[in-house]
Amino acid sequence: MKLISADLSPYSAKIRMQIYAMGLTDIEFDLPASVFLGKLVDISPLGRIPVLQTDNGTIPESEVIAEYLDDLYPEQAIVGKTPEQRAEVRVISRIADIYLMNNIFMALSQLDPNTRVDAVVDLLLGHVVRGIVALEKHISNGEFAVGDTLTRADCSLVPALFMCEHTLPRLGMDNPILATQKVSAYWQKIQTNELAAKVIAEMTRGMIARLNGSEKKMIEQAIAAAKAEQTS
Asked: What angle do CA 148, 77, 96 make, to 5 degrees?
């Protein structure tokens, strides 16, 4: 199998963390030139990463991929030990995906303070704060988001909280994690987890490449190479 993924993509990062946690070794990570050429829709009509390519077809959407991996490898699934835990894992994953990451993504268009529309930023980041407040009620007091072992809730939260910490201040908003107790304590603890640290390092690498221009150069080189191959 092959996962089309990018370092900085939080939705890709949550699947990579799940793959690491489940101990899966038969999934290759790739970012083909077709992504930069606007041809990802030829692989997946939604045109967004991550995308999982299997021998039997193509699976888009991170949460669908996450569930597919659980179904494919049930003995290694990290969904919680009881029905109640599994429900809480799903709730926290929904908070991370919908209230945190989705609104942050939409707010990225407002990064330039010269063209920023304050009403748009206030609306989107208000939903982020709402998500953080809800997360404070649902997250456990322990080392992990739910129960005493790493679950898919952690896989969703680590990239989402990384984006909160590194993106929201650039939008003129204080990091909302700092205003919490349980979420803040969790974020400090989970960053010392080996798998979380691995994903955070990958996302940090992607963010550095985005900010220093090396990502843009890499994309330009990939596009040039792909076009040269098409004309040869």
From this structure: 70
